[in-house]
Design brief:
mainly beta, Porin, 18-stranded antiparallel β-sheet, 5 helices
Length: 464
């Protein structure tokens, strides 16, 4: 299987017993404001050049900052407006599915017209059979992603767990993807096999209200037998601060100008039974920027169980060590523990996922000894009904010598309704907050936003 993603929607891929990875390029229609495209549910059956639809939304945004170094211009409330269109080309066939989608977007501000800007999204996906021609035992997954985003987009962007919960997959497909790391669903595969980019409310703290994310990830899988498979992966990513709206830039509005990450890992997975999977992963992640240059080496073991026709569970644990090459703040070099669990529940209408984990170091390059994160996602959609609901929440805590009490949290809830003739109404509320102390300077943010949007597609029969 080969996949190429070049997109301006961000995200990260979830790998069991590894650091968080993700891509939010091809979430389902109801995961966020419905910008339709060739990767939306049902649209993959279309052939040739297509106009997928248009979308427009209005957002009330309230931003409260407590950092006195940040000008008051960037605080307070505002009305934001967005309009976008989506076109593309696809060629589905028995052996190969190819799709290309492009979506320009315009963002405008009522209070600050200078903050208005254009954005672009390009997605390219190629899906081939699970066995490559070089050998019937080898599989190759490849993803490429770019993203430009601002604070408002970060509030409403679904996490990897949100996209997994909202994907139209059966219980067996969902459990197989999370336990066996082998997504058989066309909607789950682009989310699971993604680029190592950090997705957290803390991104705004470190990189400011505008940022760029990009990366590449490749994975070879060798099926030694029907039960045993090996995985060899590697890739890299970059996150950086972008010039502020209106062409001005204020260095106090971001703490880290950029961060580069490179990773390599080897793992194996063995099926003890149709309901039980075990395995191990070992690898290294190099993180470097102006503050730090270090390696985080780790080794973990994992196990996953299908508990019933509704529940599945995975657990992992291991150890890792940070090897600094250059550091602004002394980081611990002793061995630290890693661990986590994923709990999933799925019925015909409901999908509920919880992901809790502890990893060594951090993906920002600020010298953390460990990162604690907890995420939850819920999606409700009854077949035959024209409306759906989804919600999600995530929290991240970092222990860092140069900082103290770094806590970031983001939550959102979304309601969607197909109202006929190809129109879809979407309403969403999101909340983001972080608290941090850096060199005796407090950084605090409270942001609330509510948005109402409507989209239209000429392919009305494919919506829901």
């Amino acid at each position: 299987m080969e996949r190429w993603h070049l997109t301006s929607k961000t995200g990260i891929s979830h790998k069991i017993a590894a650091l968080a990875l993700g891509i939010l390029a091809s979430g389902p229609v109801h995961a966020q404001m419905p910008l339709l495209g060739p990767n939306s549910p049902g649209f993959g059956r279309l052939r040739g050049f297509q106009f997928y639809g248009i979308m427009s939304s209005a957002t009330y945004f309230d931003n409260r900052l407590s950092n006195t170094q940040i000008p008051q211009l960037f605080t307070g409330s505002d009305w934001l407006f967005q309009s976008s269109a989506s076109v593309g080309w696809s060629r589905p066939s028995k052996n190969t599915n190819i799709s290309i989608g492009y979506a320009p977007s315009y963002f405008g501000s009522l209070r600050n017209p200078d903050w208005s800007f254009w954005n672009h999204s390009l997605t390219i996906n190629t899906n081939t059979p699970r066995t490559l021609t070089i050998s019937p035992r080898w599989t190759f997954d490849f993803a490429l992603m770019t993203n430009f985003t601002n604070l408002n987009q970060s509030l409403f962007a679904p996490t990897t767990l949100d996209n997994i919960a909202s994907a139209p997959a059966s219980f067996d497909q969902l459990a197989g993807a999370m336990i066996r790391q082998n997504p058989s669903s066309d909607q789950l595969a682009p989310v699971i096999n993604g680029v190592p980019v950090t997705d957290s409310a803390a991104n705004v703290l470190f990189y400011g209200d505008r940022m760029f994310m990009g990366g590449v990830q490749g994975t070879f899988t060798y099926a030694q037998s029907g039960r045993l498979s090996w995985m060899f992966g590697g890739g890299g990513s970059r996150i950086q601060h972008l010039t502020s709206f209106g062409g001005s830039s204020n260095s106090s509005r971001h703490l880290v100008p950029y961060t580069n990450n490179a990773n390599a890992n080897v793992g194996l997975s063995y099926s003890l039974s149709p309901r039980t999977q075990i395995g191990m992963n070992t690898g290294t992640v190099r993180t470097f920027n102006r503050l730090q240059d270090s390696y985080a080496n780790y080794a973990t073991v994992f196990a996953g169980w299908t508990l019933s026709r509704r529940w599945f569970l995975t657990v992992n644990g291991g150890a890792g060590m940070i090897v600094p090459l250059r550091e602004t703040y002394r980081v611990p070099t002793k061995v630290g523990y890693m661990g986590g669990t994923v709990i999933g529940y799925k019925t015909r209408e409901h999908t509920f996922l919880v992901d809790v984990k502890r990893t060594i170091g951090d993906n920002y390059g600020i010298g953390s000894n460990a990162t604690m994160s907890a995420d939850a996602a819920w999606s409700w959609s009854r077949p035959g009904r024209s409306w759906w609901i989804s919600a999600g929440s995530g929290r991240q805590d970092l222990g860092t010598p140069g900082f103290s009490n770094i806590q970031a949290w983001r939550s959102h809830v979304s309601f969607g309704q197909a109202i006929g003739w190809g129109f879809v109404l979407n309403m969403q509320y999101a909340y983001l907050t972080y608290n941090a102390d850096f060199l005796s300077q407090a950084y605090k943010l409270r942001a609330n936003a509510a948005t109402v949007g409507i989209s239209w597609t000429p392919h009305a029969g494919l919506v829901r």
